[in-house]
Amino acid sequence: MFKLFKFAALALTLVPSLLATEPAPGADEAKPEEVQYEIIGETAAVQHKEALEETIRLFWQKTVEGDLTSIYGMYVESYRKAVPLKDFIGLNRGEVSDVELDKIWMWGDGCAYVKIYHAMKTEFMEFPRFPTRQRWVWNEDKWQLYQESAVGGFVIAPKSKKVQEPCPLPEKLRSKVKKKPAKAAGDTSAAKEKGETAAKVK
User: Fold this and answer.
1) What distances in angstroms separate CA 71 from CA 8, 56, 77, 98, 122, one per listed residue?
2) Distant-in-sequence, close-in-space partners of 3: CB < 8 Å, separation ≥ 6
3) Residue 158: strand, helix, or coil
4) Cα–Cα distance measured from residue 105 to residue 123, given in angstroms and rounded to the nearest whole number
5) ∠ Cα 12 18 19 (to 5°)
6) Does 21 map to a domain?
7) What are the start-end ranges of the H helices in the chain?
8) How far is CA 124 from CA 50, 100, 107, 120, 132, in A?
9) How far apart, in Å, do the first and last CA atoms of the chain sit?
10) Own/partner pairs, 156-164, CB within 8 angstroms, 24+ separation
11) Element (H, E) at 126
12) Dihedral, CA atoms, 130, 118, 170, 138, nearest 10 degrees?
């Protein structure tokens, strides 16, 4: 019995070491997902493509960590002048997670439009992953985030609170609102159809 117990103890000691294998080189390193790129016209911004990806990933890493002081310094100067650091830190935010850099459009001397997916959790509810879009500008040998509004990050704001726009969007990136075709004068087809339906009900 003693020999059996001794053998079992020896097996428990040896098996983990026998099963253990050396991890493959770089196995623990997180590989960033491949990002889609679209170049619009002739642009000098492409030469700073790698720096842009690094900056965006750093911005969102600091966002997930809640390091607001670091990400504040990554905004364009005009935004920082309009929004003091203490006000920026005081803005209501949720906890960001599950960030994915999806696509980057580049144009001009140093303009980039970026699409990111991320999830968010607030005090009251959780939001599944949804898209967020950002505009980045190459300025003073680095990429900086352009925020249109100085009011809490919301796009809708009075003109007095708008930040100067350094990189207007190309036409193909501007959202287009689909307008309903106007009804021709004297078109009574809808009214006629409504009257026929009412007659059938009677």
Assistant:
1) 56, 10, 13, 18, 19
2) none
3) coil
4) 34
5) 95
6) no
7) 2-19, 49-65, 68-72, 77-82, 85-89, 189-201
8) 38, 24, 39, 11, 21
9) 96
10) 161/82, 163/76, 163/78, 163/79, 163/82, 164/78
11) strand 126-139
12) 170
List, for residues 161-198, the tens digit of each pLDDT value: 555 667 777 787 776 545 555 555 555 554 455 455 44
139: burial class by Cβ within 10 Å (0-12, 13-18, 19+)?
middle
* Per-residue model confidence as pLDDT tens digits over 18-59: 223 333 333 344 445 688 888 888 788 888 999 999 999 999
Number of DSSP helices (H) and strands (E) in the chain, helices first:
6, 5
- Which residues are CB-neighbours of 66 under 8 A, at least 6 positions away? 95
Asked if residue 26 belongs to a domain, the reply is no
In a domain, 12, yes or no: no
- Number of structural domains, the chain? 1
- CATH number, domain at 96? 3.10.450.100
**Residue 75 carries which DSSP code?**
B
Tell me, yes or no, whether 98 lies in a domain. yes
Q: Which two tokens stand for residue 99?
A: 């960030």
pTM: 0.63
User: What's the whole-number mean pLDDT along residues 63-81?
Assistant: 91
| Residue 128 belongs to domain spanning | 31-169
